[in-house]
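Below is one such protein, fold included:
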Amino acid sequence: MKYEYLSKISKKAKIRDEVSFKYVKYSSSKENIRKYIMNDNDFSSVNKNTIDVINVLTNSKIEYKDDEVMKDMCKGLDDLIEEGKQEGIQKGKQEGIIEGNKEKEVEMIRKMNCNGLDVQAISKYLELDIDYVKSILAN
């Protein structure tokens, strides 16, 4: 279905079918796309219509300037990979913050308990579910 649609619109937009088909074929894995692009001269440059089709069909975000007629696909893919890395780093930082806050919370619950506060008081002061506080203190 995807390939039939691509073939129809590619003829109207003068898109290089083989490039679009190959990109779609390998689009499930950025690593596969990267390997294929690095070893295939067809991907060295393509027109902006081809990039538009690839972006739509594969939900890619390859960018180009409006006045740019050709686009280096390796550069476009490198940009996608770098964007993915940055998103991963950001997500990792956010998860680290969450984990750090959770550890601090557990430490605070234990310290409060060691200082004589009961489960109900800890739950109230920290605005936490009483069962959660109990589970922390049980470990």
